[in-house]
Amino acid sequence: MASHRYTHAIVCRIPLSFKTKALGISEEIDLDKAKQQHEEYCKILRDAGLDVIELPPDENLPNCIFVEDTAVVCNGTALICRPVHAPRQKEVEIIRTIIKKELELPVVEIADPSATIEGGDVLFTGREFFVGLSNRTNEAGARALAAAFPEYPVTPIKIGHTPHIKSLVSVAGPDILCVSEGKESKSVLKRIEQEASFRYQTITVPDDNAANCVYINGTLIYSAEYPESIKVFEERVDYNKVSANVSELRKAHGALTCCSILIKKTKYLKKL
To answer: Per its UniProt entry, which superkingdom is the organism in (predicted)?
Structure first.
């Protein structure tokens, strides 16, 4: 599907401070292993045909690796997000500069001071947006997204205590959504199906964390840590696929989609 064709990805290397100061750490992080996994992730993006822009690590920003939360880019325009945690605003400033000066894309700023929105709560199917309403993204944030991209339907979906909607549902292919067998994931999918303007196919995996995957340029990137879910992907996916391991990033609520901002530059495509 043309909507899932991309030319660039923004990523950020892992700072030393990620090991002890990242938000939501659940167990000890092996920093060397985390860096290796991130390097392999970036290679997969390059192999999928993306020009990967790697930002240097910032020790003052332990969560800077999770660039997805800072901006939503669609149809050559970037909505600059507003993460709920104030210290992450510096991450937003850096990404804004890269998008405006290096990629030369127009940006949309959020006018409502009460709005909060993180990119991990924005699910774009290629046909419409679903926004997860949580303690990180509110209704004002969803309205800001709708104002930035009026050409697409935008539907708010309330989620529970899961970090982001894309932890529960993600895009796994053209008009295909990936969900897990978990109660919350199924509940969110049901609400999406009730509100959607299009009927999607689904791939259901047994492991909750495996529901987060990345579909770019005809390639599905899925989690390498869950053997039973891997079997499902191998059986159900007949297009190009590759696994990636982000087990160390998961210890700070990380996932596959968290680590990149995907961008399609139309002018760049024409030059190719």
So the answer is: Eukaryota
Q: Which token pair is 105?
A: 């894309």
pLDDT for 161 equals 76
Instruction: Write out the DSSP string of 149-202.
Output: -TTS-EEEEE--SSS-GGGTEEEEETTEEEEESSHHHHHHHHHHHHH-SSPPEE
Alpha-carbon distance of 36 to 10, in angstroms, equals: 18
- Please give the distance of CA 269 from its chain centroid, rounded to a whole number: 22
Burial string for 88-102 (b: 16+ CB within 10 Å, else e) reads beebbebbbebbeee
Q: Which two tokens stand for residue 108?
A: 């949309």
Bridge partners of 157, per DSSP, are: 132
Contact between 175 and 198 (Cβ < 8 Å): yes
Q: What are phi and psi of 24, to 5 degrees?
A: 75, 25
| Contact present, 106 and 148 (Cβ < 8 Å) | no
What residues are labeled active site?
Answer: 164, 258
Q: DSSP for 232-265?
A: HHHHH--SEEEEE--HHHHTTT--TGGG-EEE--
Nearest to 77 by CA among 263, 272, 271, 268: 263
The angle at the Cα of 18, spanning 205 to 260, to the nearest 5 degrees, equals 50
CA distance 173 to 216: 8
Confidence of residue 45 (pLDDT cuts 50, 70, 90): very high
Q: What residue type is assigned to position 26 of the chain?
A: S
Other CB atoms within 10 Å distance of the CB of residue 163 = 24
